[in-house]
Amino acid sequence: MPDTYRTENEPKSELFDQLSHVRAGMLGIEGSGAHMRPMTHFADAGKAVLWFITSRKTDLAAQVGQGATAHYCLVGEDTGYFACLRGAIRQSDNSEMLDELWNAVAAAWFTGRDDPDLLLLEMSLRDAEVWSATNSRFQFGLEIACANLDKDAKPDIGAHTVVRF
Questions:
Q1: Would you say the pTM of this structure is higher than 0.70?
Q2: pLDDT in the model for residue 144
Q3: Containing domain of residue 94, as a range?
């Protein structure tokens, strides 16, 4: 469950906590004209980097080319946490990182760790916009009722902030 206080006061740590709980988001390449696609991310909070494993044969690999700007959208499943992250994305030949990330799920898509179609993408985060909302039905109902009783009042049911890396 997201913490609205942390979204406002510790947005980077809350973002990376949420990235550790939600396993997939939607990745798109700016200016490509293509739709975003679901991808599993691997987050490195210390370096503000997201890693992705894909195939060299995908449209995504072609769109990244030698480097591009990407957007990655995260929606917490039933948690009220939403984020849109932006940064430079590039193809990476970091075999040590690929060894660290390699798992049974990734292996299901390839013939093995040395599959020539295997491609590691590195997204260096530049900024993110994040929102979190209360999960309390009581608080939500109370805020909506108060806002309906007082037209000058606005419901306080969440937090929003911009994060720079």
A1: yes
A2: 62
A3: 4-164
